[in-house]
Amino acid sequence: MSAPTRILLADDHALVRRGVRLILDNEPDLVVVAEAGDGAEAIDQAGEHQPDLAILDIAMPRLTGLQAAREMIRRQPSLRVLLLTMYDNEQFFFEGLRVGASGYVLKSVADRDLVQACRAAMRDEPFLYPGAVTALVHDYLDRVARGESVPERTITVREEEVLKLVAEGHSSREIAELLFISVKTVERHRTNLLQKLGLRDRLGLARYAIRVGLIEP
């Protein structure tokens, strides 16, 4: 028999992690080797434990699951990633594809879909919860018919990281330390964000971050 798939599980709610772990622990070919409570911790745990598969909640403190996935895959290209979320959100799905995720699982049906998604990811097969497939295909075909493409990013990856931390209430110095950049660079990114998004202050940035799913209200 082959070795079980080694899994990193990241979610900022301990009860959710416990429930997901119960689902996975019942499967002989899956084993959770590490847990994390936010995206930054997930990156650290992935570096330490070198899992085969990471299951990441999208809405987490410090770094989102999407931001963490981007960095984890950059560091460990063979890592498979599944996104776990409460939100049936087209933008999250397409962004997940961009960063290299293998699948997108709704928490509401995790007991039904998660094990199947894990095994599909390890076979290098994409997984999307069944209820979304038809809607996404229709949406894509409608975009093509209108001459549109998949939505483009409004802001850069680094600006998104700064935006999330600003919206969470971190100071410029704290953000600089978390992202290993200078305070001056943080301020420049904040200014660029306000200009790009047509906003005036931190409150506006926080509202925008909630609207696009970077933080929870």
TrEMBL record:
Residues 6-122 form the Response regulatory domain. The modification 4-aspartylphosphate is found at residue 57. The keyword DNA-binding applies. Residues 148-213 form the HTH luxR-type domain. Keywords: DNA-binding, Phosphoprotein, Transcription, Transcription regulation. It comes from the Bacteria. InterPro entries: CheY-like_superfamily, NreC/VraR/RcsB-like_REC, Sig_transdc_resp-reg_C-effctor, Sig_transdc_resp-reg_receiver, Tscrpt_reg_LuxR_C, WalR-like. It holds the Pfam family GerE. SUPFAM superfamilies: C-terminal effector domain of the bipartite response regulators (SSF46894), CheY-like (SSF52172). PANTHER family: TRANSCRIPTIONAL REGULATORY PROTEIN NARL-RELATED, TWO-COMPONENT RESPONSE REGULATOR. This is Response regulator transcription factor. It comes from Pilimelia columellifera subsp. columellifera.
